[in-house]
């Protein structure tokens, strides 16, 4: 079977590399960023290391709480060398010190994480109903695209846009080639232009004055006809 005909499945988990002394290479604590350099991709029955989404590396801002969580994790679970071929099953082996591993000490497999961690968490949070057993006694969860792990990516985008991150920067963080593509996906999540305009004017100009030169909310203000110097 030709490689291009092999069904491809990308792992939802990005792996990061740290050196033997646990000084971050992918986690840059000084710059407070995560350097996304690789992912695990499934080609047929084989797993390989490959470039991240859209075949490009990217840099993601790292909040302080995440940095602290990584430090704690590294202390409790020191990274270990792990090797996979690069890009194709017969590709050259690449070894990284894997930080996040599954219970079998190998890389985290997206399907296992989805069934054993993600979906049970959604049930506990009341997002999806508890699983039901099929005619073979296997647990089955009722889910849709909106409740998949990819929803975390959309949540990240919506939160950052709401707090003022621009489309160009968000496109780079998400690994999109074209900011226009990012805009088409997330335009509906952008803050209202009317609301932002009101906030901008409120922040820079005086409020309507009430009696005795005081603002309507009771604070000191300008009298009728006065203009801020």
UniProtKB/TrEMBL annotation:
The keyword Cell inner membrane does not apply. GO terms for biological process: DNA integration; DNA recombination. InterPro entries: DNA_brk_join_enz, Integrase-like_cat_sf, Integrase_catalytic. Transmembrane segments: none annotated. Residues 1-202 form the Tyr recombinase domain. PROSITE patterns: TYR_RECOMBINASE. The keyword Ligase does not apply. GO terms for molecular function: DNA binding. Keywords: DNA recombination. This is Integrase. It comes from Saccharopolyspora hordei. The lineage of its organism: Bacteria, Bacillati, Actinomycetota, Actinomycetes, Pseudonocardiales.
């Amino acid at each position: 079977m030709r490689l291009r005909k092999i069904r491809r499945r990308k792992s939802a988990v990005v792996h990061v590399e740290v050196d033997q002394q646990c000084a971050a290479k992918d986690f840059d604590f000084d710059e407070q960023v995560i350097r996304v350099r690789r992912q695990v991709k499934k080609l047929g029955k084989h797993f390989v290391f490959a470039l991240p989404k859209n075949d490009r590396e990217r840099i993601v801002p790292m909040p302080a709480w995440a940095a602290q969580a990584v430090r704690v994790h590294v202390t409790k679970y020191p990274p270990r060398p792990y090797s996979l071929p690069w890009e194709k099953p017969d590709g050259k082996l690449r070894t990284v010190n894997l930080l996040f591993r599954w219970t079998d000490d190998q890389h985290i497999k997206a399907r296992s994480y989805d069934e054993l961690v993600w979906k049970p968490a959604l049930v506990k949070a009341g997002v999806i109903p508890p699983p039901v057993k099929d005619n073979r006694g296997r647990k089955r969860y009722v889910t849709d695209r909106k409740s998949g792990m990819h929803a975390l990516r959309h949540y990240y985008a919506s939160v950052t846009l709401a707090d003022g991150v621009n489309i160009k920067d968000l496109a780079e963080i998400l690994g999109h080639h074209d900011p226009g593509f990012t805009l088409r996906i997330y335009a509906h999540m952008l803050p209202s232009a009317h609301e932002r305009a009101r906030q901008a004017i409120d922040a820079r100009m005086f409020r309507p004055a009430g009696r005795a030169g005081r603002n309507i909310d009771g604070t000191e203000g300008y009298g009728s006809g006065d203009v801020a110097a």
